[in-house]
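Check this:
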Amino acid sequence: MATCLVTGGAGFLGSHLCDELLRRGHRVICVDNLETGSLKNIHHIRVPEFVHLNVDIIEPFFVDEPVDFVYHLASPASPIDYLRLPLHTLKVGSHGTHHALGLAKKHRARFLIASTSEVYGDPQEHPQKETYWGHVNPIGPRGVYDEAKRYAEALTMAYHRQQGVDTAIMRIFNTYGPRMRPHDGRAIPTFLRQALQDQPITVFGDGSQTRSFCYVSDLIRGMIALAESGHHHPVNIGNPNEFTLLELAETVIEVTGSRSQIVHEPLPTDDPQVRQPDIALAGQLLGWAPEVELREGLRRTIEDAGVEMLTGTSS
């Protein structure tokens, strides 16, 4: 049994990671101050192998028992959160990553940082490979998140090169599934909430901008595989099947049987026009590829979170 520490463990991805690690027989220490996470995401976990620490990782924190893996997921990740908490987002990327890496160094643990496809910005390369350096606006409204993650990647590699910490960097592309908050500002929960209430579905711009959507169980499987590998450089984990946002809205209407109409709103500042991962490296290193296609993933999300999506209440 390995002991796994998960920062942001009460969030969307973090809670699913905690579930899967426990299912695989590991002990899990969930670290989350509930700034954007929720106790509702972990209230079902009632086993002695799980503990929740209400800690703000911006401040130094310590764990008195041995730790084998540190999964560093803590960060505001949706636009509604990092636009509301710009300084906090930057501090989590800097101070929080520094403290998590320091803990991994102390315990000689394998460290994985959950980075993001946002490090590519509005990419000039399509699809995006790990060798692409990105096209990011550092002073735009999204810069607090993009640059926090880019800095966190640099800090992770510095700890690896200078301090010898065993590190991994995972660049996460759009992921969806149960426990996403209906009002978190991202496309799939927003579209599902609107469709299930027969409200107009709001598409930014003309809807021609593309995204690639990975179901959460596929993402978590890739995350654990990367953590258990010996690889240190960035690896894309996401679904390479690309959809325009207009196609996504139409698919949501189809799957839900909604009477919603599609309406268009102005495009947000620095909204990426394309987003598609090249996952060849993940396939070669980890033997990983996504398995759940979009319609099936949407059905599973509705089945598990239908009441909250239907009422628009937050999880």
In short: Residues 39 and 283 are 35 Å apart (CA to CA). The chain has two domains: 3-175+213-237, 180-211+241-275+292-311. The mean pLDDT is 94.
